[in-house]
Amino acid sequence: MDFNLTKEQRDIKKAARDFAEGEFPEIAKECDRQEKADLGVIKKACDLGFVGVFIPEEYGGAGYG
Fold first, then answer.
1. pLDDT surpassing 80 at residue 64
2. Which DSSP letter does residue 54 get?
3. Where are the domains of the chain?
4. Contact at 8 Å (CB) between 61 and 54?
């Protein structure tokens, strides 16, 4: 069984890391303090396709889960 990531999976992993490192450091403590998520960051995550990765394609997700 091959457990290595495909190029597509590596690209998704890099995009997710870049997004998280670019968006979260500035707001993470404040979101934790308020116990609220930043809707702007959630919208960006949706726009990049990160929110629906585990939702089946027939329901509008990416179907990776």
1. no
2. T
3. 36-65
4. yes
Q: Rounded distance, CA 58 to CA 52, Å? A: 12
pTM of the model: 0.70
CA–CA dist 10, 29 (Å, integer): 28
Does residue 25 have a pLDDT over 90? no
Q: What are phi and psi of 60, to 5 degrees?
A: 95, 5
Alpha helices in the chain (DSSP H): 7-34, 39-47
How many percent of the chain have pLDDT more than 90? 46
Contact 53, 64 (CB under 8 A): yes
| DSSP-derived 3-state class of residue 4 | coil
Tokens of 57: 């394609």
d(CA 40, CA 37): 9
